[in-house]
Amino acid sequence: MKIRLWLFLPLLFIFCFGNGQEIIKGKVLDSETKAPVFKAEISLLNTSDLRIIQKVLTDSLGVFQLNNRADNSYIVIQKDGYEMKELDKAGDFSLIELKPTVGNISEVVIRSAARNIKLSDGNIVMSVSGNRDFKTSANLLEVLRRTPGVSIDQEGGVFIGGRITPAIFIDGKPVTMSSQELQSYLRSLPPEMVESLEVNANPSSKYDAEFKGIIDIRLKRNGNLGWKGNYNGNTYANKFSYRENALNLSYNTEKTAYSLQANYNNGISTYRYNALQKLANTNVMRTNTYQEDEGTVYGIQTGADFRMNDKNRLGINLRGNFRKSDRFRLGSLYTTNRDESQLIFNTQSENPTEYSQENYGITADYTFHNKGFKLSFLGNYLSVTNKQNDDFINRDQPTAQLLSYWKSDLLNKIDIQTVQIDASQKIGNADLEAGMKYSRSDTDNNIRYDTLSVNNRFVFDPERSNMFSYKEKIWAGYVSYRQKFGKLQVNVGLRFENTQSISDAVTRDSIVSRNYLEWLPSFSTSYAFNKSNELSLSYSRKMTRPVFSQLNPFRVYFSPLNYWIGNPYLQPSFTSQIKLTYRYKNWVTSFTAGKEKDVMTRYPLYNPKTNVLEYLGTNLPYRKFASIETSFPVKLTKWWNITTQIAGYYNDEFRPYLDEVFALKVYNYELRVNQVFSLPKGYTVNLFANYESKTGNSLYIIKPRYTVDLSLQKSWFNNTLNTKISYNNIFDSYDQSLEFRHKQIMDNRLTHWWDSSRLILSVGYSFGSSKYQTKEIQKTEEENRAR
């Protein structure tokens, strides 16, 4: 199969056709007075991802001109005081009439909101820059919290559909980052720098099998020659403070675009954990943990995009991300007999930690585009080094007597290399694509424990110490075919992935070697009834491989008697799902259903003799799931917009546990309401509320929770200075509480609390100069309104 694909790729070179340039001229008039409309904003947008291709303003006679180079595009015309108008590229532009908006704001009139959402192959594409819903957001992570189908947990983790961790793409290209580096990057991007987001909840065979979801971030480009910059700073304040600083610079010449991004974050965050655990007729244990993290993160990335000629483009990006953290964890364990009449022991543990991470990455991409043929190459390299030193000190709380003391020294190194080549050929209304990818991951882990002996000396502890390495190679290839039949578009694809992996638990003298080939088909179809109505249906089969932390069989301690252990024998899981999506204007509704086999999960195991609670990894036979999500914006008045998101979820999990089988059907829902008030003098107020109903799985119940955020935004000095103030999680109500369902087995209740109730102050400042302004004008509709 590999040889056939490589022979097939050069054949695509034989198709080469011209790419002409078309000029569009038009005139904009007031529909009532027939007078020319001066400075109306004319935007040419890409139909698939809402990316702005070109933007101009009408002159004093209402005349404009666009140099159109895109086949798949449409035009948006907007002017403050007039209703927005959308036109197909093939429309008549000789005389365009704009209708004035209603001026009476005391009357509540429900109207359709501005067009901020589109579908592209069934994926939601949301405009960001200029979108009222995101004007008060401090950074892109806050934007994602308000994006339909996306959720953010308390630790900054990003999820699609409440369960999928998506891959992050930048301008259509995958970027290999560690989870910590990714969070820093998302926090460094203000919404004003992002053109759009595409949320792909069911990727086709073109993408890696592990990508169950994708979020593609399209950055806003500087269309001017010369240089441009932006500084964005955020301060989070509660009991402690945390600060984020990001500087973005770009410099454009006729042939080259340079970019530089630097960020520096530092401060303190806190976390609390409370738990109750007991078996029938055994001791009752209560755990309380308080944790402070004082951390510093700084990163830098620089890149250059070389437009060598009309056919060839080369890009390169270098980046580094560095993190240091001093963590102090203080815990107590209060244990009584089963009727709580007698104290068994009362201990206190201290766990100071020094942690550091260094990331280095390089990305190179090359594109050749000639007529209907396109060839692209992408290479990625990421190197991550983690170091961590821990002290675990356990004392008897009443007497302060030292009960145990051990130290750990961890060194973890990860190297990831990927090379990918893709080719596509346009043949009439059809697109033929094929590609190959090779990736290699090497992970080495060495953790050493030393325990204080009775002689008051630290000695090597072989029971806890561990050396583990994991090496993985993946060869993958795909072919896909897309064709448009009038308003109907069909896309079929097939992907293969060959995985070779070796996990070596050196300390335990255990080697697990695997070599397997999987075929992964996909299919999607979409039908555009008109500009306001779209329907799409898609199917895909995906594979999820266990990651290093799930395979490594060493202990990660939460407390001296509570830890989790990896399982080197975990198998990959396979997911088959279908998705149906319908859009009516900005109202989007989607339904997803599927089944996952060999689900990877963790389960608790309590030892009543030692009072140790372990969390162990395993594969479940299967899990069925379904969800229905809808999002609809409503414009109540000229100054009041409401966007509502409602999602319902279903999970049916088959879980063997302690010689029993638990197969429960769990239903839950989530409701989000985002209200935006555009006040006089350019002020914008945002009120965001989120409610999550009771949920869980076959073993645990997760209790309901909610959050409310309030924020205010104002631009100054012709939009060069942007200020925001927010109060997130006003009622400090977003903690996570879990309860074990089966009390006859174990009574286990636990609560996680993060310091997400914060006051946030944000300042953004744009600066720069240019030799002259190109056809594109950078100000968006919302930026013009704020003047």
Can you summarize this structure?
The strands form five sheets. The protein has a 22-stranded antiparallel beta barrel. It has 787 residues and is mostly beta strands.
Number of domains: 3
Label the CATH architecture of the largest domain.
Beta Barrel
The top-level CATH class of the largest domain is Mainly Beta
Global mean pLDDT? 87
CATH superfamily of the largest domain: TonB-dependent receptor, beta-barrel domain
> Oligomer, anyone?
single chain
Structural class: mainly beta
* CATH domain topology of the largest domain: Maltoporin, Chain A
Strand content is: over 45%
In angstroms, what separates the terminal alpha carbons? Answer: 59 Å
How would the global form be characterised? globular
Low-confidence stretches: 1-21, 103-113, 771-787
Total E-strand runs: 44
Keywords: Cell outer membrane, Membrane, Receptor
InterPro entries: Beta-barrel_TonB_sf (IPR036942), CarboxyPept-like_regulatory (IPR008969), OMP_b-brl_3 (IPR041700), Plug_dom (IPR012910), Plug_dom_sf (IPR037066)
Protein name: Outer membrane receptor proteins, mostly Fe transport
Subcellular location: Cell outer membrane
